[in-house]
Amino acid sequence: MTLVFLESADDELSRQALTLARSLGGEVRAVTVEGPYAPAAWAAAIVEAADGDDIVGPGSDRGNEVLAHAAAQLDLPFAANVAEVRGDELTRIRWGGTLLEEARLHADRKLLTAAPFAFVASVDSTQAQVLAPNLDGAVAVVDHVAPDTGGKVSLADAKVVVSGGRGVGSAEGFAILEELAALLDAAVGCSRVVTSAGWRPHSDQVGQTGTKVSPDLYIACGISGATQHIAGCKGAKALLAINADREATIFAHADYAVIGDLHEIVPAVTAELRKAKGQ
Ligand SMILES: Cc1cc2nc3c(=O)[nH]c(=O)nc-3n(C[C@H](O)[C@H](O)[C@H](O)COP(=O)(O)OP(=O)(O)OC[C@H]3O[C@@H](n4cnc5c(N)ncnc54)[C@H](O)[C@@H]3O)c2cc1C
Q1: Pick from 8, 92, 105, 107: CA 20 to 30 A from residue 255's CA?
Q2: Residue owning the nearest CA to atom 35 of ligand 1
Q3: In contact, 54 and 83? CB cutoff 8 Å
Q4: Nearest atom of ligand 1 to the alpha carbon of 164
């Protein structure tokens, strides 16, 4: 039997998890959890409700975090972002969608999350049991504070993102990207090298360990195109890369390529835009 954890009954990724749970064969029971988000406490409630059954969850941030806690509490292996199950053999989606991993689960009991969009969401209505976890002493989310964007469009919502990497050279070097972004009503993003150097805050980082963006246009300036960066911007409808190195990996992902020094090209683009806008 399988217990499937739904973030909510109408959540798309949860319904995909339901499809994965059903593909395992046998009876499927669904649960949701009420109250503030408290990953360890939620996991404990799910583990208790599962009563020895397999546990499947959505491949969302919460699904993966809760299942990881469940695995730690049960001392069992956990396979996240599963795209296919064949007995104890699995295909998992890794590295931000750039790698398919063939794996074997060394346990009798399965703890899995469904890779987002690897399964068709179940559409029929599901009766889910609502669990009330014990929050005594639990670490829980008590409030959400939106980052202060100073009235500017946020990275996650921007239709255009102007992003800078090591090639920008310094914190001050971002001034030309800020200027271009202001003209395009764009947000400024960056690579991890930039946040590690302290040139920009982590909230600006795009990538596997940063924000995942899906703007109409992503302008990558002085970014080499590492897998972990692409994982954050591959949802962009179009990518314009500006890079001095014609061999840079970023060009393999680019719809538009400009080979040259960003310190010349970005101000030139800004000047043309100003002209076009009559400024
Ligand atoms: C577990 C893990 C998670 C990670 N998560 C992330 C993440 O979330 N986001 C992320 O970005 N990275 C992440 N990384 C780091 C990633 O692997 C790369 O190291 C990083 O993305 C490289 O940043 P970069 O492109 O700015 O720098 P570099 O790779 O050094 O590239 C700089 C580029 O700038 C170009 N350049 C230099 N000068 C100029 C100029 N004047 N004009 C134009 N071009 C110029 C160069 O040709 C080069 O292509 C992660 C790594 C690991 C191991």
Answers
A1: 92
A2: 222
A3: no
A4: 26
pTM of the entire structure? 0.73
Q: How far is the CA of 62 from the centre of ligand 1 (A)?
A: 28
Residue 120 Cα to ligand 1 midpoint, Å, equals 35
DSSP assignment, residue 52?
Answer: T
Which residues surround ligand 1 with Cβ inside 6 Å?
165-167, 191-194, 205, 207-210, 222-224, 226, 228-229, 232, 242-245, 248, 261-263
Separation of CA 228 and ligand 1 centre (Å): 9
**Residue-level pLDDT, tens digit, the chain, 279 residues:** 999 999 998 899 999 999 999 999 999 999 999 999 999 999 999 999 999 999 999 999 999 999 999 999 999 999 999 999 999 999 999 887 778 999 999 999 999 999 999 999 998 877 899 999 999 999 999 998 877 777 788 898 899 999 999 999 999 999 999 999 999 999 999 999 999 999 999 999 999 999 999 999 999 999 999 999 999 999 999 999 999 999 999 999 999 999 999 999 999 999 999 999 888
Nearest to 21 by CA among 42, 46, 1: 1
Task: From residue 118, give the alpha-carbon distance in Å to each of 82, 91, 252.
Answer: 8, 11, 25
